[in-house]
TrEMBL record:
Main location: membrane
Domain Histidine kinase/HSP90-like ATPase: 524-614
Biological source species: Dactylosporangium siamense
InterPro entries: GAF, GAF-like_dom_sf, HATPase_C_sf, HATPase_dom, KdpD_sf, KdpD_TM, Sensor_HK_TwoCompSys, Sig_transdc_His_kin_sub3_dim/P
Domain GAF: 263-411
Transmembrane segments: 20-38, 50-77, 97-117
Keywords attached to this entry: ATP-binding, Kinase, Membrane, Nucleotide-binding, Phosphoprotein, Transferase, Transmembrane, Transmembrane helix, Two-component regulatory system
Stored PANTHER family: NITRATE/NITRITE SENSOR PROTEIN NARX-RELATED, NITRATE_NITRITE SENSOR PROTEIN NARQ
Name of the molecule in the record: histidine kinase
Record-listed E.C. numbers: 2.7.13.3
Mode of membrane association: Multi-pass membrane protein
Length: 624
């Protein structure tokens, strides 16, 4: 109740004047009636204080002029009822003037105090209202994902708080006009926006807005913009981090292929696929430069809905072709395939709907090998960041090509060494057969002929000549065995099957053969298989402590498969002086694969698979 009374007394909006007049009369009447029992008992000054209370109430609620009127009426009522003689006006100038003066001064002072309190209360209420408004605007504007979407509700709330028809907050500088009054919102000298209110808004409202709302709005807009900038920066950083992580994953997948020695074609396809997935809706391609100044598409991926150019397509590098520009300059290039672009390749790409592209050179060990290109069918240009990502992948492409070239050169070098060794073996076997062996055979025949011409009685000479002839025959047989070990003549004459059977017959261990060859194979394949079986039989006899060896060979389709197993002690391993390293090198030179399974105590199994890339003449027959 006291709070409501105080709020009523300090209310900015005063009650109607009619109510004030009635209230004044009622208060004077009530005070007069209430003081009747005390007439003649208490002094006049004490009784006059009761009338002063009514003057204070009226002055505080209705202002000075009604308070003065109430003071005069109260003085008259007091004189009429409580100054002797009672029930008559007995006005004396000094006394009554003093009473009226006291009442008027009290009313005026009360009015002043009430107005002051009322203004302070109004100001406090306005400050509280403005603080609530600022808090709500901050809540709306600083928590909105998009600042512009929050300005409409914020403007409406501001208009409601200041009892305006409407209000608007703009993020650009807007001048005022006949309908709108404009308040610039600044951050120092930097424009942040404009607050617009109706042009007929009261001056006090304008002043309140200028003094109290505009500064807070400027701070809010500045903070909101900084928040948007930070949010955008974080979003971009997150997107860049996500893109970088995806790029690193793609690079790692391609690098894994390169490290595992994958074929260049597989690396090319992986690069174009990863680029297409990483860069989005762009076409990608790898082009290898040819000596005749053309390019070959070794791998490519087009945008969805675009006809893909087949792998292996030859491209002319004339005109405004992107790959031609890279071939001529050796540097990254950008190309547009509009109607002004000249050249055959540019026309073909234009027909496919490709509008522009970027490309970077692929440099392998200092030499320009080709180009990696990215193209688009959209009118917007390809971002510059694409070129940087493209360059990262081309380094892996160059590494894959260099690795493949190195492996090819190494394989070719090993093949040349093996071929030279085989040729030296063949030549040595031929020289032994055609030279030393034939000479020994001739000497043996001459010795036998000399023995036959001796007369009877020369028994000692005949025995000596017979021993010489027998020795020559033994030396000839030893040379024949040596020549078989160097290069088996049976392999050249009858093929792999007869050569393996001959090898099995001469083995120190029993050999069980199962051959399904059925035709002559390329010489290098037959020679390789022969030496694999020969080395395996030698190892089994020397190291394995085996009792039997099983040899299975079958030419199925385009693969010749060989399995050699024994029942020895096992534990065989490449690199322990068993000759298996040489076998592995020989097998790999013909594109084959060697696998050794040799657990300790369980024997050894050698598995060989060699591709048959040529068909020889039919064999004399298959052997089982």
């Amino acid at each position: 109740m006291p709070a409501r009374l105080m709020a009523l007394l300090l209310s900015q909006k005063r009650p109607p004047i009619e109510v004030g007049l009635i209230t004044a009369m009622v208060l004077i009447a009530v005070q007069t009636v209430a003081l009747l029992p005390f007439r003649g008992v208490s002094g006049e000054d004490v009784r006059s204080v009761a009338y002063l209370c009514g003057v204070l109430v009226i002055s505080s609620m209705w202002g000075a002029w009604l308070g003065v009127l109430t003071a005069v009426a109260s003085a008259i009522a007091f004189n009429y009822f409580y100054v002797a003689p009672f029930w008559s006006l007995n006005l004396t100038t000094r006394h009554d003037l003093q009473t009226v003066t006291v009442f008027i001064v009290a009313g005026l002072f009360t009015t002043f105090v009430a107005n002051l309190a009322r203004s302070r209360a109004v100001e406090a209420s306005e400050r509280r209202q403005e603080a609530d408004l600022a808090a709500e605007l901050a809540h709306r504007m600083l928590r909105a994902d998009d600042l512009r979407s929050a300005l409409g509700p914020a403007s409406q709330r501001l208009a409601e708080a200041f009892e305006l028809r409407s209000a608007a907050i703009r993020l650009q500088a807007v001048p005022g006009d006949e309908q709108w009054a404009a308040f610039p919102l600044l951050d120092g000298a930097t424009p942040l926006g404009t607050l617009l209110i109706p042009a007929d808004a009261p001056d006090r409202t304008r002043e309140r807005l200028r003094q109290r709302v505009v500064p807070s709005l400027e701070s809010l807009l500045g903070a909101a913009r900084e928040r948007e900038e930070i949010t955008d920066s974080l979003t971009r950083a997150r997107e860049e981090a996500t893109g970088l992580a995806a790029e690193q994953v793609s690079l790692r997948r391609v690098a894994t292929l390169v490290a595992h020695g994958a074929a260049p074609a597989a690396v090319f396809d992986a690069v174009t696929a990863e680029l297409c997935q990483l860069l989005g809706q762009y076409g990608t391609g790898l082009i290898r430069y040819e000596p005749d100044y053309t390019g070959t598409l070794v791998s490519g991926r087009n945008e969805p809905g675009i006809v893909e150019m087949p792998t292996g397509t030859r491209l002319r590098l004339d005109g405004d072709c992107l790959s031609g520009s890279i071939r001529r300059t050796g540097r990254p290039a950008v190309a547009s395939y509009d109607n002004a672009a000249a050249g055959t390749t540019a026309a073909v790409l234009r027909e496919l709907g490709i509008r522009s592209g970027v490309g970077v050179p692929v440099v392998v060990e200092g030499h320009l090998w080709g180009a990696a290109v990215v193209s688009t069918t959209r009118p917007t240009p390809i971002p510059a960041a694409v070129r940087a990502r493209l360059a990262d992948f081309t380094e892996l492409v160059a590494a894959a090509i260099a690795n493949a070239d190195s492996r090819a050169q190494l394989t070719a070098s090993r093949a040349r060494i093996v071929a030279a060794t085989d040729e030296a073996r063949r030549r040595l076997e031929r020289d032994l057969h055609d030279g030393a062996q034939q000479r020994l055979i001739s000497l043996g025949l001459q010795t036998r002929m000399l023995q036959a011409t001796l007369p009877p009685g020369c028994d000692l000479a005949q025995e000596e000549l017979a021993a010489i002839a027998t020795g020559l025959a033994g030396v000839c047989e030893e040379l024949r065995e040596i020549s078989r070990g160097i290069h088996p003549a049976m392999l050249s004459k009858g093929g792999l099957g007869p050569a393996l059977r001959s090898l099995a017959r001469r083995s120190a261990l029993p050999v069980e053969l199962a051959l399904e060859i059925g035709r002559r194979l390329p010489e290098r394949v037959e020679v390789t298989m022969y030496y694999v079986v020969s080395e395996a039989l030698t190892n089994a006899a020397k190291h394995a402590q085996a009792t039997v060896v099983h040899v299975d060979a079958a030419a199925t389709g385009a693969i010749l498969r060989l399995s050699i197993s024994d029942d020895g002690i096992g534990g065989a391993c490449i690199g322990r002086g068993s000759g298996l390293i040489g076998l592995q090198d020989r097998i790999e030179t013909v594109g084959g694969r060697l696998e050794i399974v040799s657990p300790a105590g369980s024997g050894t199994t050698i598995l060989v698979a060699i591709p048959i890339d040529a068909t020889g003449p039919p064999a004399a027959g298959s052997s089982q």
